[in-house]
């Protein structure tokens, strides 16, 4: 609960939660027709502002644009930890994959590195690469489809939710995880910018063996160092259907902050002039 962290250190953070009572919309119904609420809706009229108040911060409930403007202005002026519960129409919301105008389109179409022969069989992190969601995606895909799932992650992204390997093993899900391990968030060669003896906050324990984590819960762990070894390991894992984690060791110098990968950044085909 990071609002506790914000209050603990008295950080000048103002959080605005647009509350429409649901993940997409707050009006969804249970698709099974049962009496339970839809898994896509939350407790109606939740007061998220009370969460901030629980830890000594300021909580504000607003229902109009004018109230929101005043609340944000006051919070930013005060520098006090603040959470604004901005109540909006429960029907306001759309699944991001359906917002076609916001989906990036690359000018360069490259052939897939991993073949996909059927539609709607690939889950992507989206624009700018949201790290840490891969394990949740993999678990859900395996449960829903009952078919082998391949999850490809960097060692940094894996660190966000890597303990889900226990879930994968607990339910014996047919998930193969490939962790590209270069010993760091961007590169595994960064040095401490302060010049101190501690390692850089951007690097991990050198030569970590993520495959051992999967073995700890009864799954299969494989350590590979070449493309050929990786190919064979992935093929074997997908054929077996056994929970598997492949620690794919790559060059510690291989890596770049996503905002600096200019060739991969989406470019709109439409150039608009500056607003007047």
Quick tags:
four-stranded parallel beta sheet; Rossmann fold; three-stranded parallel beta sheet; 2 domains; alpha/beta; 276 residues
Strand content: 5-15%
- Rg, rounded, reads 23 Å
Main sheet attributes: strand count, strand direction, barrel closure: 4 strands, parallel
Total domain units: 2
| Secondary-structure element order, N to C | HEHEHEHEHHEHEHE
Strand order of the largest sheet: 4-5-7-6
CATH architecture name of the largest domain? 3-Layer(aba) Sandwich
Query: Could you estimate the helical fraction of the residues in percent?
Result: 25-40%
Instruction: Calculate the mean pLDDT score and round it.
Output: 80
Count up the helices: 8
CATH topology of the largest domain: Rossmann fold
Using the alpha-carbon principal axes, give the shape.
flat
Overall strand count: 7
Query: Helix/strand-derived class?
Result: alpha/beta
Oligomeric assembly: single chain
- What's the CATH first level of the largest domain? Alpha Beta
List the uncertain runs. 95-113, 259-265
- What is the assigned CATH homologous superfamily of the largest domain? Thiamin diphosphate (ThDP)-binding fold, Pyr/PP domains
Cα-to-Cα separation, first versus last residue:
42 Å
Fold blueprint:
Blueprint: H1 2-8, E1 14-19, H2 49-54, E2 58-62, H3 65-78, E3 82-87, H4 134-145, E4 149-154, H5 155-161, H6 164-170, E5 175-181, H7 211-216, E6 220-224, H8 227-240, E7 244-249
Parallel strand pairs: 1-3, 2-3, 4-5, 5-7, 6-7
